[in-house]
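=== RUN LOG ===
request id: a7f3
mode: sequence -> structure
chains: 1
length: 30
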Amino acid sequence: ALRPFMESLLQRGLDRFASQVKKTADSPKS
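=== RESULT ===
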């Protein structure tokens, strides 16, 4: 019962990370 929770949490984190990376890629600041 713990695994699904962890998987959903990981998926949520990945989604947030991906959106953040996409946002950073859209407006690059080097």
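=== NOTES ===
The chain has a mean pLDDT of 89.
The radius of gyration is 13 Å.
=== END ===
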